[in-house]
Write a structure and sequence with these properties.
alpha/beta, eight-stranded mixed beta sheet, 2 domains, 442 residues, 12% strand, 17 helices, disordered N terminus, Spore Coat Polysaccharide Biosynthesis Protein SpsA, Chain A
């Protein structure tokens, strides 16, 4: 019984240990490699950027999103909007843009094919691109056409294509993910926590995994070679709840490398209330567990180095620590609380003998707060975000509490997976900044 309690007490250290290990790898990668720079021969002019925007009832944000995409520097830009059975004015707004600008196209999906998930909508876009070449595709082969997945509320930085293009100078690179920020991060603490969550994850884990060619792909700000999509068959995206993560794993199993750059980013809306946030994170956690299905394929593909394989396995199984931490808290902390109360008057040596591990746990958990705060502050400075170091340290303290949201989320996602419940609810939008919607030609 004692050894079980000691083992339970060690479990919460595992995520922190993983954080520190990946942090060291990220620092090493930053020292030996510049993420924004690849082979100098590759520039944005060498590629056609096809922005695919899946939409379901996005009338509040789609106009402003199209304005931003069409304003990106360079002429080699095409936009394909996939209307996945909207019953609002989304299609009408996009149609007006398409009538005015040939770079915009609308693909409408109707029942019974529509509303079967983001993966199905993206596959429909892929089929359309294979049968009807995008505007401006003449002169570009599949290796030089980049399909860019952007959410309807996504705000890609103007330097996005120019920053990402050099990374595709490496012919082994099949996809690149850019950083993600919350554009409403100043609106409240919950949105700020989501911004910190994404930034710290990318600054530590994505930087380190980029070194192996294993950077994770997200559903927003994802750049993929058309030739890489072709190697995945007729349906590059699957029905998994995290179809982006799954597609990245399938690319890696086929020998492609996936990269990441923190030198640019895409902004999206941070959720303002706890319930939809928990629902969203439950979907992500469940989708991550679904990707365990790819473990045999990754282990048996024969195209990955030992280092890449170990990284992928650690990353895929890491969510299990969320469940183990919950069990650890239930098994270990009540006993420690009982001992603390019953032996409150013991000597310092006696206290350390009974509670030393708990003390180290406390110091280690809260000891990373200055590290997280400094990482966030430095990253914000690069994006001209007006956050002071004291503010960042305060946010890091709040983040240490916010992170416990994953404990109930993990169990709920596991229960849904065991029930084979793959349903999901769309995240509601708030109105975007006003945009000038062109009128139809007469």
């Amino acid at each position: 019984m004692i050894w079980m309690l000691r083992f339970a007490a060690v479990i919460p250290f595992l995520p922190i240990l993983s954080f520190l290990v990946y942090g060291v790898l990220a620092l090493a990668a930053e020292r030996h490699r510049k993420y924004a720079a690849g082979p100098p021969a590759a520039t944005a002019d060498d590629f056609l950027f096809v922005f695919v925007v899946p939409c379901l009832n996005e009338e509040l944000v789609i106009a402003a999103s199209l304005d931003r995409l069409l304003a990106l520097p360079g002429r080699a830009v095409s936009v394909l909007v996939v209307d996945d059975g909207s019953d609002d004015a989304t299609a009408a707004i996009v149609t007006r843009y398409a009538e005015r600008d040939p770079r915009v196209r609308l693909l409408r999906r109707r029942a019974p094919d529509a509303r079967k998930g983001k993966g199905a909508a993206l596959n429909a876009a892929y089929h359309h691109l294979r049968s009807v070449p995008p505007a401006g595709a003449s002169g570009y082969d599949d290796d030089h056409i980049l399909v860019v997945v952007v959410d309807a509320d996504g705000r890609l930085q103007p330097d996005g294509p120019a920053t990402v293009a050099p990374l595709f100078g490496d012919p082994r690179t099949g996809a690149v993910q850019v950083g993600v920020r919350m554009y409403n991060r100043a609106s409240g603490r919950l949105a700020r926590m989501q911004d910190m969550e994404f930034l710290v994850f990318t600054e530590i884990f994505q930087r380190a995994r980029h070194r192996w060619g294993n950077a994770g792909l997200g559903g927003n700000g994802q750049f993929v070679r058309l030739s890489a999509l072709r190697c995945l068959g007729d349906d590059p995206w699957t029905h998994f709840l995290t179809e982006d993560l799954d597609m990245g794993l399938r690319l890696q199993a086929r020998g492609w490398r996936t990269g990441f750059t923190p030198a640019t980013y895409v902004s999206q809306e941070g959720l303002a209330t706890l319930r939809p946030l928990a629902r969203q994170r439950t979907r992500w956690y469940q989708g991550h567990l679904q990707c365990w299905y790819r473990i045999p394929e990754l282990l048996g593909c024969g195209r990955l180095s030992a280092g890449r394989t170990v990284d992928l396995m650690v990353y895929l199984v890491s969510p299990i620590t969320v469940l183990l931490i919950t069990l650890s808290l239930v098994a270990y902390l009540p006993r420690q609380a009982y001992v603390l109360v019953t032996r409150f008057d013991e000597t310092v040596d006696g206290f350390l003998a009974h509670h030393g591990l708990l003390l180290w746990w406390y110091l280690l958990v809260f000891g990373v707060i200055p590290l997280i705060g400094t990482i966030y502050w430095r990253a914000c400075r690069r994006s001209t975000d007006d956050v002071t170091l004291p503010q960042s340290l305060y946010y890091a303290l709040l983040f240490s509490v916010y992170a416990y949201l994953w404990l109930p989320v993990g169990w709920r996602a596991t229960a849904r997976l065991l029930r084979r419940d793959g349903s999901w609810a769309k995240t509601l939008r708030i109105p975007d900044q006003p945009a000038t919607v062109p009128s139809a030609r007469t």
